[in-house]
Write a structure and sequence with these properties.
199 residues; alpha/beta; Rossmann fold; five-stranded mixed β-sheet; 10 helices; 5 strands
């Protein structure tokens, strides 16, 4: 699935300009955030959690992620590990595909642009989300979430632990390839309650 992220703000092109660029990529879905806030950043991270192998992320520029250059680099590395490809634009509006074959010089220039934009717009001193909420969950954390759900914790409780909304936790659990362990019937036959009931 190809998802386009649209983030509005003073340091980004207006909505019409972003849409004109992104429509060239023919995305299947759009995620639009009109204001830059901690909650908007949280929603973006949670949407990124749902991307997996074969999915594509479309951005007008990497600055739309509202992350510092190092955080953007870490995010891109995590997405590449998951098999997600990123499509974005350089200043002359040429499309850049970020995957395992991308020229490192091009990638460094894109990250340098993120750094320059954040410094010039004052974003570096703006409100920050907790670090755990800014980063995508690692594979071991996702597996831990699934174990907690199998143990009976609600999505809300798990979300409080990992700083994610219940909807995000539900989405991760829907992708769980591990079926729930069946309860053995033999254990029920030998249970104390069963014996008492038969008396």
């Amino acid at each position: 699935m190809r998802t386009a992220f649209v983030q509005l703000g003073p340091d980004l092109p207006p909505l019409e300009a972003q849409m004109a660029l992104l429509q060239r990529l023919r995305p299947d879905a759009y995620h639009v955030e009109e204001t830059a806030s901690i909650h908007a950043a949280q929603r973006i991270v949670e949407c990124l959690e749902k991307l997996g192998r074969g999915d594509e992320l479309c951005l007008v520029s990497l600055t739309a992620l509202r992350l510092e250059a190092g955080e953007a680099a870490e995010l891109l590395a995590t997405l590449l590990d998951r098999g997600v490809r990123c499509l974005t634009f350089v200043p002359d509006e040429a499309v850049v595909e970020i995957d395992s074959r991308t020229d490192p010089v091009v990638l460094l220039r894109l990250l340098a642009e993120v750094h320059r934009t954040r410094l010039s717009s004052g974003q570096a001193t703006g409100p920050r989300m907790p670090d755990s909420a800014r980063q995508l969950l690692r594979a071991d954390q996702i597996e831990d979430i699934r174990r907690l759900a199998r143990a009976g914790l609600t999505a809300r409780r798990i979300g409080l632990i990992y700083r994610r909304t219940p909807d995000c936790i539900h989405a991760l659990l829907r992708e769980d390839p591990t079926p729930a362990a069946p309860v053995a019937e033999e254990a029920h036959r030998k249970s104390t309650l069963r014996k008492k009931a038969s008396r």
